[in-house]
Amino acid sequence: MSVLEFAIERARSRNARVLFPEWEAPGIVAARARLVAEGICEPVPAGHPTEDHVEALIELRGVKEAVARRMLARPAIRAAAMVAAGEADAMVAGLELPTRRVIEAASLGIGLAEGVTLPSSFFLLVFPDGREVIYSDCAAVVAPDADGLAAIA
């Protein structure tokens, strides 16, 4: 089983609610339809800010209420706060938003897992012949040092 097939099967078994802050982007619209048709996940839009979202940002980031409300005006941060508040299991973004903004939103709205010291990204490339290659940290960390490379790995 390929890495991609494994990930899809795992997603199906979890019946995850996945937020898409770029909800109306044409590519996202098509992807949402496919995800539902294939039973991979339940797509969720980044709804209107609620008091739970405000509280999640205040608790996680220690910001003042007014700052939390301004942060929630950004759909990606609102989506991350919704994940932090338990209204979704994951967030997928980056079709229109640059990687750094997606990582920023996740860092501000959710935070890093225990033991994770450096946010990172990766791309899974699946070639027509079935080979799979992972390129790690293609955009998030510029010129990492040895400790940064170890954290990314």
List the helices and strands in order: HEHEHHHEHEEH
Can you summarize the main beta sheet?
3 strands, parallel
Radius of gyration: 17 Å
Structural class: alpha/beta
The best one-word shape is: globular
- What is the topology, as strand order, of the major beta sheet? 2-1-3
Helical content (DSSP H or I, runs of 4+): 40-55%
Global mean pLDDT: 90
> Span between N and C termini?
23 Å
Portion of residues in beta strands equals 5-15%
pLDDT under 50 segments (min length 5)? none
- The tally of strands reads 5
What is the helix tally? 7
Could you characterize the architecture of this molecule?
The protein is an alpha/beta fold and 153 residues long. It has 7 helices and 5 strands. The longest helix has 12 residues, at 3-14. The chain has a 3-stranded parallel β-sheet, sandwiched between helices. Helix 2 links the parallel strand 1 (17-20) and strand 2 (42-45). Helix 3 (51-61) packs across helix 5 and helix 5 runs parallel beside helix 6. Helix content is 46%, strand content 13%.
In short:
46% of the residues lie in helices and 13% in strands. With 153 residues, it is α/β, with parallel strands linked by helices.
Properties at a glance:
single chain, 153 residues, two-stranded antiparallel sheet, 5 strands, 46% helix, globular
Question: What is the secondary structure topology, with strand pairs?
Answer:
Blueprint: H1 3-14, E1 17-20, H2 26-37, E2 42-45, H3 51-61, H4 65-71, H5 75-84, E3 90-91, H6 99-109, E4 122-126, E5 132-136, H7 146-152
Parallel strand pairs: 1-2, 1-3
Antiparallel strand pairs: 4-5
Helix pairs in contact: 3-5, 5-6
